[in-house]
Amino acid sequence: LDAIGVKPDEKSVAVSKLPEIIRSTARARTRTGEYLSKYDIGKLLEDALVDAFNSFIDIRARGLGGAGKADVECVYKANPPEKFACDAKATGKKLTQIKTRRLHEHRTKIGANYTIIVTSDYTPSVLYDIKHTANYIIKADTFAEYLRQHFDNNVRNISWKEINKILKKKRSGRDISKDIHELTISKFGTKTK
Question: To pair with 62 at 20 to 30 A between CA atoms, which of 36, 73, 107, 114?
């Protein structure tokens, strides 16, 4: 845009930076690569996720955070409306465990049906932890790429409906990153002969 003399508005610039903010903070670093305290990194990721979920035209998200609370509360404006929680898991390496009882308590407090866990990577034991629970994992890179493709292709009316279909197809306690990746490819990938 700068090359052709168009000045983007502040919201467009902020939204277009969301994918990179999600990627970097989920790996427990700032965009410049510096390490911050666990609290600061967690707060950055939570704030980025609030903005990311609010990028969907049919979701209202607000940050809760703090001890004993979900990081982000989201309301999917379906008929009837559906509430879910989002938990940000920033880590320098891999997430090694999920405390599902705590996530269940967070969901219960806000009346949510399920929890989306956003993390950069995890060990196989994490899938065992969430098996048969109302928790879904989305890798930060996958979520960031999904949003990035929409922003780069000037698609601003992003709906949660497509991801909700994936959630309804899969049993709880799964990583849905591959499904979201395939959705992204199906929408924005190029076809080869």
Answer: 36
Q: What's the CA gap between 21 and 140, in Å, rounded?
A: 10
Q: Which helix (H) or strand (E) holds 128?
A: helix 124-130
What is the biggest distance separating any 2 CA atoms in the chain, rounded to whole angstroms? 53
Q: What is the pLDDT of residues 106-161, one digit of tens each?
A: 999 999 999 999 988 899 999 999 999 999 999 988 998 999 899 888 888 999 99
Please spell the DSSP secondary structure of 78-105, one letter per residue: SSS-EEEEEEEE--SS-B----HHHHHH
Q: Can the peptide bond before residue 124 be classed as cis, meaning omega within 30 degrees of 0? A: no
CA distance 85 to 185: 26
Banded pLDDT at 28 (limits 50, 70, 90): low
- Whole-number Cα distances in Å, 119 to 12, 90, 132: 25, 6, 19
Q: How far is CA 179 from CA 33, 129, 186, in A?
A: 29, 20, 10
In this structure, what token pair is assigned to residue 91?
């880590």
**Strand 82-89, strand 72-76: pairing:** antiparallel
Q: What is the DSSP string of 23-50?
A: HHHHTT--TTS----HHHHHHHHHHHHH
